[in-house]
Amino acid sequence: MRKVLAVILLFVGLFTMASAVFSEDGMIEVISVNYSNGTTAFRDPTGITFDGTWIWMTEQHASGTPLYKIDPSTMEVVETRYLSLSNCCIQGLAWDGQYIWISGNGYTIYRYDPETDVLEHTCTRGSVPQAIGMACVGSELYATAWYGGLSGDLMSLNPYDCAYDIDFEFEPEMCGSYGLANNGENFLVCARDEADLSYPKKIYEYSPSGELLQKYGTFESRGAYDLAWDGEFVWVAHYGSMYVADGAVMKVRLVSPIEVFADIRPASCPNSFNPKNNGVLPAAIVGTTDFDVDMIDPSTIRLEGVPALSWKYEDVTTVPVPGECSTEGPDGIADFFVKFNSPEIAAVLGDVEADDIVPLELSFTLYDGRSLAASDLVIIRGFQGNATDNRTNKKLIVSVSSAPGESVQRISFNLPVASTVRGSVYDVRGRLVKRVVDSYHQAGLHTVNLDSSMFTNGVYFLRLAAGDEVVNRKIIIIR
Asked: What pLDDT is stored for residue 224 in this prediction?
């Protein structure tokens, strides 16, 4: 059950119903893997970087302190050098155009010249945070700041005196940040997350300003310790074990999520829903030139957690134009047309009032295992509910607040039990504007911040789900 706050339609002249895009995590596509240095199996690869020609990778807990020179076209080790360092604690590598920078134990920085084979110690830090992964952007050296298992930061690091500045904090779900690379525009970070504390298995993409743009995952087996970028692919020092030779150097491609569209009541405008209706609610997952609905596993279709009554492949609608309300029908591409039991949907919605605007999420899984979802808005019609503000009696309590003049909205939620929390903000056209939380949280009160400085004035909807409960809240931005 959930409470939907009524929306005062001050923007009636602008209001339209349109299908919205909702994207899940991207994929890590493994291109090639090498498990051996040519003589023995990799035990525990840690640092990796690309100098424009060669891949360089270190390995700890191996005999000596090897630095492998790897041919990116064959994945083979063409040369092994040995560094005069402790072999237990080498962390990340970074290439600045002339030198390879090495983080030793997270506290000590070294500079290595591959042309002269000269290694120099440049500085030592005496306290946390540790510099784990490293990446160079021009002449600037960046590192992941690690605090011993907690979510870390991105820091700018002076490798000659170890002075640093914190650029931004990683998302709280990243429980320990490891490897770092820069793809020419954004930072790529490998990290553990709260749902799996074993090894760093996901890659997170951040803008230079600290906005989480995308998540990719997950690695099988152990995970990624460090990352490098060659202009097209991501190279991974795949974490092994000091006891078992099961590490690897990997070349992977980060695959962006599939863009999918949902259309509640295809060819209808607006999308009305009467909770007292005993019939069915039709919907469509829209087929496009880039998305073949044959990839959908029909048994996984859910609308707000409600399974489908029936489904078929039928061309019933066209690709929506964001922000447009369309009654257009078939476009020549097959859609996944599905029907749901209206009373079951009404039961999920809970207390609603006439003219409430509610985002409904249509989720499904592809045959290849990828989970996707899209949302569309419905407007409650033909029904006068009996809603009261009984949030204090709900299991999941959600509130949104901000100080006058501030652009940060504080979203607080109280969980009765530990669960994965997913929160998203939509505009009045049903378009996903920003993901605010998607991580595992313990029971209790939590707060996340929504930076609305880039939002235009108007009405937005927060949809927050935890376990089998979903709560909607209205956010009004006025400056």
From this structure: 80
Burial of 158 (0-12, 13-18, 19+ CB in 10 A): middle
d(CA 170, CA 143): 12
Q: Strands 272-273, 371-380: parallel, antiparallel or unpaired by DSSP?
A: parallel
pLDDT, tens only, 241-271 = 544 456 889 999 898 877 788 889 998 877 8
Q: Residue range 450-475: average pLDDT?
A: 82
| pTM > 0.90 | no
CA distances from 372 to 115, 305, 325, 465 (A): 48, 13, 23, 16
Nearest to 419 by CA among 390, 440, 450, 437: 440
The full DSSP string for 434-450 is EEEEEEEE-SEEEEEEE
Note the pLDDT tens digit of each residue in 351-410.
777 777 788 889 898 887 777 888 888 888 876 554 444 433 446 778 787 755 667 788
Three-class DSSP category at 348:
helix
| Residue 163: how many other CB atoms lie within 10 Å | 12
DSSP character string of 235-263:
EEEEE--SSS---EEEEEEEEPPPP-BEE
Measured CA to CA, the distance from residue 392 to residue 447 in angstroms comes to: 17
Q: Is the peptide bond before 129 cis (omega within 30 degrees of 0)?
A: yes
Confidence of residue 282 (pLDDT cuts 50, 70, 90): very high
Q: Which two tokens stand for residue 76?
A: 């083979």
Residues in contact with 196: Cβ distance below 8 Å, sequence separation at least 6, in sequence order: 218
Poorest-confidence range of 246-250, 401-405, 412-416, 469-473?
401-405
**How many Å apart are CA 253 and CA 27, to the nearest integer?**
8
Q: Residue for token digits 């002076």?
A: 158
Q: Which residue pairs, CB below 8 angstroms and at least 24 apart, start in 201-206?
A: 202/25, 203/28, 203/227, 203/234, 203/254, 204/170, 204/171, 204/174, 205/254, 206/154, 206/168, 206/170
* 8 A C-beta contact, residue 297 and residue 318: no
Structural domains in the chain plus CATH codes: 12-24+259-380 (no CATH), 27-255 (2.120.10.30), 394-477 (2.60.40.1930)
Query: Among the listed ranges 25-29, 198-202, 205-209, 423-427, which one has the minimum average pLDDT value?
Result: 198-202
Partners of 58 in beta bridges:
67
Count of C-beta atoms within a 10 Å radius of residue 224: 31
